[in-house]
């Protein structure tokens, strides 16, 4: 029998990534035990918020602009942005718990205080973010899903782009980095269709990284393997 909801009422959303990898080091277990609850953005999971009420971002970040990083991996980019721009608050979503543990170590080391962490699927976060509450979103090296029959699992599809557009403010910026040419194609096709304009005016705008960029783990791997990064910047219309 195919189920379309969990007992909590949550929709049955296919997730094809990994939740857990190698055994965590004791220090990483400690970060998760001691820090994760303190960094929670609020009631995001279905079991604690079955009516999907919008969360209040004020207690988290006051009047600061709020940014969102989707699939932060090991968290190096998010911590870098948080340290560089202390006048914004950044929410990161990542279901891979080893990545979350890595991020928590980096937050401790950097003593960053403007980060909130949701250790789960960004679609749950979209449900409860207030409309037009986010002024910048980062989608950095999303899972490539190279096989044609898997392209519909990509982030640059309606399932993700429609709710993303809803939670972004008018004029908000969306940054997408990818090393997969066919992902560039799909991004340039789908993202404008979902309410964004591509801001590139010349090749350097997508060939060169953003001024405030720090290379992520996945980008390092792509470069080692000879793939070419693309940096796409969109603005919500
Ligand atoms: C290829 S990795 C890139 C990680 C990181 N951004 C980097 O550049 O190193 C893609 C990440 O997206 C995460 N991811 C996949 N689906 C997701 C979802 N629905 N919500 C949030 N993160 C997701 C994966 O767990 C994985 O860590």
Lateral strand order in the biggest sheet: 3-2-1-4-5-7-6
User: What is the name of the CATH topology?
Assistant: Rossmann fold
Q: Sheet bearing the most strands, described? A: 7 strands, mixed
Low-confidence stretches: none
Number of E strands:
7
CATH superfamily: Vaccinia Virus protein VP39
Domain count: 1
CATH class: Alpha Beta
Q: With helices defined by DSSP (H or I, 4 residues minimum), what is the helix count? A: 9
Any guess at the CATH architecture?
A: 3-Layer(aba) Sandwich
Blueprint of the fold:
Blueprint: H1 26-35, H2 58-61, E1 65-70, H3 76-84, E2 88-93, H4 97-110, E3 115-118, H5 122-128, E4 134-140, H6 158-167, E5 168-178, H7 181-193, E6 196-198, H8 204-207, H9 217-224, E7 230-236
Parallel strand pairs: 1-2, 1-4, 2-3, 4-5
Antiparallel strand pairs: 5-7, 6-7
Bound molecules: S-adenosylmethionine (SAM).
Description:
By secondary structure, the protein is of the alpha/beta class. The protein has one domain: Rossmann fold. The protein is built from nine helices and seven strands. A seven-stranded mixed β-sheet has the order 3-2-1-4-5-7-6, sandwiched between helices. It starts with 25 loop residues before the first helix and ends with a strand. S-adenosylmethionine binds next to helix 5 and helix 9.
